[in-house]
Amino acid sequence: MGLELYLDLLSQPCRAVYIFAKKNGIPFELRTVELLKGQHHSDAFAQVNPLRKVPALKDGDFTLAESVAILLYLSRKYKAPDHWYPQDLQARARVDEYLAWQHTALRSSCSRALWQKMMFPVFLGEPVPPETLAATLAELDRCLQLLEDKFLRDQAFLTGSHISLADLVAITELMHPVGAGCQVFESRPKLAAWRQRVEAAVGEDLFQEANADILKLKDLPPADPVTKEKLRPSVQALLQ
After folding, report:
1. Given CA atoms 77, 71, 8, 43 in this order, what sign does their dihedral have?
2. pLDDT per residue as tens digits for the range 43-59
3. Phi/psi at 30 (nearest 5 deg)?
4. pTM attached to this predicted model
């Protein structure tokens, strides 16, 4: 058995892995794990990833969890072009710096924005206190400013003149609040121009393919009672 990627394109890190593999011509078998149906909690998936999270990778007898680890594994095994994860010490350190920062900053605020603005009230039928949503959107705005001021600055991409894993991880995060109807790019021309460069670098067709599900999420019908009960424990922290 060749390379298998366990993904749900509603997940932002799954979108990053999917785009990276497709863009770099990496052959893989897609194993879809539907998060909103709780398939990541199944015993069968736990055999692949005991953490019960996507993305996950299976390469023969080798399994791997965590999106950054998967991206680096694919980059190294398939000898992706250097700009994705540069050999130069300081250029690579800049990519590492962003990947280390985003976990508890942009990732957190983008996920909470999606769930508080749309998924809780529309999909789960649970109201979100206005002050909670307002605080989340304020934190998202703060993170967007840091993304511009600290990482993008006056560069074409987050770590220099070429696209890297940092840009791929960042853009897939930002499509989460976009999918919820947040105006992420409208008042930020520098960030909007960066998005256009990232889309052009990965290919507009691939970008749209990877983000189609998140952009259609607003049309999702309300969850049935069984799905609500499955999801509630794992997403409750996103209300904080």
Report:
1. positive
2. 999 999 999 999 999 99
3. -80, 125
4. 0.96
